[in-house]
Amino acid sequence: MRFDDIPYLTWIIWVILSAATVFAFFTAHWSNVFVTVTALFLTILPAVFSKRFDVRLPFSLMAGISVFVFGTLFLGEVFDFYNRFWWWDVALHGMSAVGFGVIGFLFIFYLFAGDKYAAPPWALATIAFCFAVTIGALWEIFEFFMDQTMGLNMQKSGLVDTMWDLIVDCVGAFIGAISGFFWIKGRQMGPAAMIDQFVKLNRNAFRKVKHQASSRWPPGTRGRD
What we know:
Elements lengths: L7 H19 L3 H24 L5 H20 L2 H4 L3 H24 L9 H30 L8 H26 L7 H10 L24
Helix pairs in contact: 1-2, 1-3, 2-3, 3-5, 5-6, 5-7, 6-7
């Protein structure tokens, strides 16, 4: 991954998290050190993944991941946005679930090398939905772990908070997955633009797209022969 493949917003978040880590270290706020280091690691992870597997990520996807991690860990925990704004947790879970629904669809589609006939659209969308909900469930486990080990309060009201988070995750995952379904059908809706960008940036990975000329295929996504 080149430097110009990383959004400016992600760079800004990295600088803020790095500065916050140094400040927390010198002021001996060890829980904040752990939170900021974890947030920094999670925001760097997509860039590492991109370089390791030679996959180009859309700016919107990388920026979205950075904003989510920054919002949920740094603003949510260090600046207590979860308690200041009742809607903060719901908004973050909804946004992330939509994103993971799209990521799940792209992951499965990527494994099929862009072969839209390898599985029916509804199957791809279902797998994407399950992927996103699984990530949401794992995040709830992460919140529980952080609360128990670091003395944080990420789960707030416990079971009630967790269940509402999972419900929001399911709604967001459905939106992301159904966007992939309609994208295959040749219709642009919701986050489908992100799917379109990913395919265009990684034409070589979608080899079978080149041989599947179809009026239903979204414009601009066919590879070059």
